[in-house]
Amino acid sequence: MNAEERPHDNYFSEEMIILALQSSPDPTAIYTGEEMIIRFANAGMLALWGKDISVIGKPLIQAIPELAGQPFLPILEQVWRSGISYSVADAPARLIKNGMPTTDYFDYEYKALLSADNKTWCILNTAKEVTSRRAYLERIQQKEEKEQALIEEMATTMEELTSTNEDLNISMKLLEESREHVKTIIEQAPVGIAVLQGPDHIIEMANTAILKTWGREGKEVIGHAHHTARPELKGQPVNMWLDDVYATGKPKINKEFLVKLRDGGGLREAIVNSIYQPIISSGKVTGILVILEEITQQVLDRRKNEKDQQMLTLAIDAGELATFYYEPGSNLFSGNALLKSWFGLSAEEHLDLSLALSSIHDEDRERVTDAIKESLRDGSDGQYSIEYRINNPQEPSPRLVQARGKVFYGPNGKAATLNGTLRDITEQKKDEQRKDDFMGMVSHELKTPLTSLQAYLQVLQRQANLTDNTTQQNVLAKSIKQVRNMNSMINSFLNISRLDSGKMLIEKSKIDLQQLFAELEEEMLSSIHTHIIVFEPVQALTLYADREKISQVIHNLVGNAVKYSEMGTRITIACLAIDQNRLKLTVSDEGIGIASEDQHLIFERYHRVQNPQIGSISGFGIGLYLCREIIALHDGQISVEKSNSEGTTFSVELPMGN
């Protein structure tokens, strides 16, 4: 038959071969050149390495640096130069998976593919993970060796004491105990094991694990032919594999095989790893050892993790985030291509911690080093958050970045890795500065006319109070209230300007908290009619602080609670002594709460919480920022004590002072 008579050959292209390799259930990769450039790796090989598709096109040692010091690269180089393929079974390999070093065992082959002139043009790498199989077979071998030793001991005893029936009985008992011991091990094995005898595959033994996977009880299958005991396998290849193993004496190994198993009165789909091992006696196959491990949940979890990883990668790319990974034990530091570009490196160049630190602005380097050490310190909360500048020789000015990370701990409770992201906030800070400059300018320009307007309105209000014109009185009262609100807003902007310039002064004096709370209660009850304002009774406490600034903090927190809770709900203000030197102020509402991801951001300047339930609420995002800065100037702390669907509580802790 010539080429014209086989049109389907035209479709067997290089792309189809690659597609076939991608679909292979076995991990597969292709390398070229003496540097072993990774030209192809399917999903199985990427999962085995614990890497993603970004390693394609990189030298193997750069993509998987943990291979250094292991025999794989020298073997690959020998295969490349000699053109002689290499394969091995049960070989150990040390890899990093999910951030943790692991040692697994593999059957793998380096297949040299030769050109017409017998030169190696690529190496095809296939692998199978056999860690579980190896561990189990080692146990079986150990028990068989123990049984063989007992058998040999019994034979010796029988030869020495053939004249004594009693000694013969003792030896037979030892043999029976050994067999029972092996049966006990098989019964308690964590994987499913069954022994099939003869060409009909009579089920001689089946442990609890395999019976559970089969969805059967022992009395249903023991002593029966496999194909009659398990009719649900009709139309599936299992029985055909058993026949083939018995006929050829060659084992059959399946990885992540999809099979339909009995489940009550119906069938369920399961994913299993299986080994069909021929049992050979006197050179003849007498049965088959079946080893079965169900991995349905593990595979589903892995696929979910892969999907989550893809979604995370999309989110990182969309958010233009640089990512980093630091392993303090080995001082290994790595990052994505964006992070390398920020530090002035190409995607192929290696990035280590010392190089990254040297690129940080001189004034920021020590702060960054201290922040990393603090996050890794025993007893810390493992959080890493800092802003600093990066000097890139290829860029005219430093790049300002915001770094956030979290420490992950090993089984020993020690810090294993520090993972996180970097966000470029250069333009954001410039925008904030421009906004601050504008607010400061506008605030100064508005201050004088507003003061005059308030004075004119107060004059009109005094004149209106001498008449019976209640409408005019109400309008003027509301106008004066709005002017005061505008003055309060302008004062907030001016306070921000003073903070930035270091000119905000704290004028401390002794404050009678009972008197302060009484004044605030009277003021708020007369001005807030949309909510139930409750001031809890206050102890006789004296606080040494700036009275105006502390009042402003309470006003801001109550105003925030009014904005973000429904009309008619309760807002509670309380104060209590923590000890002889510190006190705590709390403002609680019954609002919608603050999402966990926003709780560490709400005290940032100009930050506005985005929540579709509440729509758009007026404001500039400076109230809580001012509260934080004022409390910090008093050596205190402000935080979200709790926040859920039942409401939010803000907590302010202050030293009582002298």
TrEMBL record:
One of its GO terms (biological process) is cellular response to phosphate starvation. Residues 384-437 form the PAC domain. Residues 308-379 form the PAS domain. Residues 441-658 form the Histidine kinase domain. Its EC number is 2.7.13.3. The keyword Membrane applies. It holds the Pfam family HisKA. It catalyses: ATP + protein L-histidine = ADP + protein N-phospho-L-histidine. This is histidine kinase. Residues 133-178 form a coiled coil. GO terms for molecular function: phosphoprotein phosphatase activity; phosphorelay sensor kinase activity. Keywords: Coiled coil, Kinase, Membrane, Phosphoprotein, Transferase, Two-component regulatory system. The keyword Magnesium does not apply. GO terms for cellular component: plasma membrane. InterPro entries: BphY/WalK/GraS-like, HATPase_C_sf, HATPase_dom, His_kinase_dom, HisK_dim/P_dom, HisK_dim/P_sf, PAS, PAS-assoc_C.
